[in-house]
Amino acid sequence: MRYLISILLCLATAGAASAQSGGGFGASGLPGVGEGPPPDIHSANRPGADPVRQSAPAWDANRDGIFTCDEWKQYATRIFISADLNRDGYVDAKEFDGIRRADPSFKNAELGYFDDNHDGRLARAEFVDKKSPLFARYDRNNDCRVTAEELRGGGGGDGPRARPTLGSDGGMGGSIGVPF
């Protein structure tokens, strides 16, 4: 299993490097994808940008540039399963480091934010059922879909919503422990 994860990480790194140089990847930087996400999503997800927006294309399963709650839950499930090293159905404090390394938006995440029953470990539902901060920030009409227009600051809803408070790098948890 670790061998497979290592290979996938190597391929992802090689793909990202190749995409930056234009090496055979579609506009989105993904192999076999002819059209990339709308330009505003692409530019918003460049290195050094907000980690919440930077990680969103990784969980856009159908690569349509619209980020849905279902896609988030599928992605979060994969992260949880890979972090649950002993396969007991829970992620403990030691295993939680795997979640921090899995995605830039979890870099400063704290187990306590997800641990609803305060037992010092996460059940899958505790992790997967938390909304991505992307929805707290950008889902202006609360339809569980973030569109390119919502990312640009337009979209539905009753006008601008207050931006959630995140960690110092925009990730979940941060030094203050309150992701949104």
UniProtKB/TrEMBL annotation:
GO terms for molecular function: calcium ion binding. InterPro entries: EF-hand-dom_pair (IPR011992), EF_Hand_1_Ca_BS (IPR018247), EF_hand_dom (IPR002048). Keywords: Signal. Residues 168-180 have a biased composition (Gly residues). Pfam families: EF-hand_5. Residues 1-19 form the signal peptide. Residues 71-106 form the EF-hand domain. The keyword ATP-binding does not apply. It comes from the Bacteria. Residues 28-57, 149-180 are annotated as: Disordered. This is EF-hand domain-containing protein. The lineage of its organism: Bacteria, Pseudomonadati, Pseudomonadota, Alphaproteobacteria, Hyphomicrobiales.
